[in-house]
Amino acid sequence: MSEFPACPSCNENMTYPDGNHLVCPMCGHEWSTEQTTVPETVPQYRDAHGTPLEDGDTVTLIKDLRVKGSSTVLKMGTRISNIRLVEGDHDVDCRVDGQKFLLKSCFMKKA
Hints:
Strand order of the largest sheet: 1-2-3
CATH architecture of the largest domain: Roll
Distance between the termini: 52 Å
Helix content: under 10%
CATH superfamily of the largest domain: SH3 Domains
CATH topology of the largest domain: SH3 type barrels
Radius of gyration: 22 Å
Strand content: 25-35%
CATH class of the largest domain: Mainly Beta
Number of helices: 0
Shape: elongated
Order of helices and strands: EEEEEEEEEEE
Largest sheet: 3 strands, antiparallel
């Protein structure tokens, strides 16, 4: 293994230095030695209209949502305040009428 970082393009470990750059022989990608750390990407959560969501926002449902395993229906237009964003398929953790739900952000708009 190489003591140099893996290629950011193809993730191959066979990189080597060439002056002030690092080179990947597998894909031919070259990058500066100052850019060896890959910045962490923070996931962006967006509502149905593309507006960014943050923890503590108030949102409104844009369609009726049936609750799985129950006869309960969350009606369109229901306001949900103080949401919490979590990772996963259902990315909004919230409370509606005292019950905890995990919902998808694509079914809501920022109020």
